[in-house]
Design brief:
single chain, mainly alpha, 75% helix, 0% strand
């Protein structure tokens, strides 16, 4: 039995959370594929760092850059 959007909006937050659980579950085979893909991605990222292909940035520096960019954008409004 499927539910349309109107019926979904009439559910309480707890009911919506419970209804979403089956959508969040994946099979063991699907989980294995996800795990393999993540291992591959992590290996690629580690290789990029170790080879010097990418540089790591300090979080405080990144946050400062973002704050500066946002402040500059606000000035132009």
């Amino acid at each position: 039995m499927s539910m349309d959007a109107t019926e979904g909006r009439s559910l309480s937050a707890e009911e919506r959370e419970l209804a979403a659980v089956p959508l969040q579950q994946i099979s063991d085979d699907e989980q294995a594929e996800v795990d393999t893909a993540w291992r591959s991605e992590l290996r690629r990222r580690i290789d990029d760092i170790e080879s010097g292909k990418v540089d790591l940035l300090d979080a405080d520096e990144v946050h400062a850059q973002i704050r500066a960019e946002l402040a500059a954008k606000r000035k132009w409004r």
